[in-house]
Amino acid sequence: MDSVTKLQGGLYVAYGKRCMDFTLAAVGLLVLGIPVVVLGLMIGLMEGSPVLFRQKRVGRHGELFTIYKFRTMTRRATPGSSITVSGDARVTGLGKWLRRLKLDELPQLLNVVKGDMSFVGPRPDVPGYMDRLQGAEARVRELRPGITGPASLAFRNEEALLARAADPVAFNDQVLFPEKVRLNLRYMENVSLVSDLGYILETILPAREEAASPLLDCQASR
Q1: How far is residue 132's CA from residue 169's CA, in Å, rounded to a whole number?
Q2: What span, in angstroms and rounded, lies between the C-alpha atoms of 193 and 171?
């Protein structure tokens, strides 16, 4: 039994969380099956193939997995940075709409069913971030990556913050990522069914006007 199962969530973390994830994701795929197909057809007709975006991300225990999302960037988009800022020219017109409503993440229900991801947890990063954490911070890797979570909700306006930064990559690496790690560690220490349901509900409800901490706002505008 790893250290995650010793947290306050107890049996929920050990067994209930995965059971809830699988059940909700399976039901979600059944209920949203037609809308997902319609969105896929829209992308195919308006933007061409491929419809899905696939990329290797760092998962639980540092193991790589393939994440699924609806493609929101042009087919000829250069790989460049993994960071996307508000107004990024690589994002298609339809992609902007999908990103704003978070509909591009619906295919991740497949990742949840497969066990690669959870509904609530740290967002899965590309290699070079989560897999390089050391010491106590590395405990975050014991959690399955999530579709949503405390860090995702805290930085719903992440693309806008990055767009305001003089150096988006440095701002992400030196400010946003460490703050996300801190929030995810706090979540890890207090994970429970109630907290997970709360994060899921907050994700579904219309977003409130987001305001990052003064420290983040100050550093982003430099």
Answers
A1: 17
A2: 33
Cβ–Cβ < 8 Å for 195, 119? no
pLDDT tens digits, residue range 71-125? 998 876 555 556 676 667 888 888 888 988 889 999 999 999 999 999 999 999 9
Q: How many residues are present in the chain? A: 222
Could you say which DSSP state residue 57 is in?
A: E
Say what the pTM is: 0.83
153 closest CA partner among 98, 197, 103, 210: 210
CA distances from 13 to 9, 130, 143, 183 (A): 5, 21, 10, 18
| Nearest alpha carbon to residue 16 among 190, 150, 196, 187 | 196
Tracing tokens 């996307």 back to the chain, one arrives at 84
Q: Phi/psi class of residue 94: alpha, beta or left (left: φ > 0; alpha: ψ in -120 to 50)? A: alpha
C-alpha closest to that of 129 among 86, 81, 96: 81
Residue 181: in which H helix or E strand, if any?
A: helix 177-189
Q: How far apart are CA 164 and CA 219, in angstroms?
A: 9
What is the number of other CB atoms lying within 10 angstroms of the CB of residue 186? 12
- C-alpha torsion sign, points 147, 149, 152, 153: positive
Strands 146-148 and 118-120: parallel
CA-to-CA distance for 34 and 51, rounded, in angstroms?
A: 15
